[in-house]
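Section 4.2 – Deliverable D4.2 (structural model, holo form)

The reporting period included a commitment to supply a predicted holo structure for the target in complex with coenzyme A. Inputs used:
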Amino acid sequence: MPIYFCIREITSAGTLPLRHALLRPHLTPATCVYPGDTDATTIHLGGFVGESLCGIVTLYREALPDRPGVGCRFRALAIVEALRGQGHGLALLEAVEQLAREAGADYLWANARVPVLDFYRKAGYAVGDEEFIVEGVGPHRIVVRNFS
Ligand SMILES: CC(C)(COP(=O)(O)OP(=O)(O)OC[C@H]1O[C@@H](n2cnc3c(N)ncnc32)[C@H](O)[C@@H]1OP(=O)(O)O)[C@@H](O)C(=O)NCCC(=O)NCCS
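Output (structure tokens):
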């Protein structure tokens, strides 16, 4: 039987178990709550197989400093390990891109982990030159997709 990955909106609290397990297992659950998580304009998406939450991503109305135009940011994109490599991460990314476009964004950006930069390159993101450390998490670079 085919496995269907269904994407729908979830709550801020609903993202926390996977954020912790997949992105910050060595840190406290409290570090998985991000500024803006409960803003009215923030959207949390979950990817489900049946009733099981298997992927997450969150979209914020947050521009890049010093960049003109309307910007949106995404954070905490992750897929459970057993379901990686099947297009589900890209599906969640495309879902937040669609929401960002609908919100009038000129571009979408994120602080991306260095080991997965090629995932973003393949998805059409430009990767910034500067590498920086997010404390307790590791090296990152900014990735940006322009919509105009
Ligand atoms: C990054 C992540 C979300 C990708 O999700 P995924 O479902 O495995 O990715 P997809 O199957 O949609 O991959 C889409 C394409 O990117 C490629 N890709 C995926 N992960 C990659 C990686 N780490 N490096 C290079 N290419 C990658 C796939 O091979 C695929 O390419 P193809 O279309 O040529 O076959 C997932 O690996 C993950 O959750 N990682 C741990 C958490 C994490 O690091 N999140 C990102 C925080 S910035």
